[in-house]
Amino acid sequence: MYIILVYDMHKKRVGKMLKLCRQYLNWIQNSVFEGEITEVKLKELIVKAESIMKADYDSLIIFKSRNKRWLEKQIIGKERSELGIFL
Q: How much is the pTM?
């Protein structure tokens, strides 16, 4: 599946969440990630994220799609993570 993940964390936890999400997805912009991920890996990511988060303060939002081609992405300005540069 293809997901877009967005989080809002207290500044004390932002670095840990950034590091975690970069292990699973492509970093697009501050607190925004996207990419293909299996259901099992997504569940793993969520469990690890919940261990970092404070449920009464932080939030994690995941948008799911069966396939990336069902989404249209328009970038205005500089793209932070250009996927075409990987070998």
A: 0.79
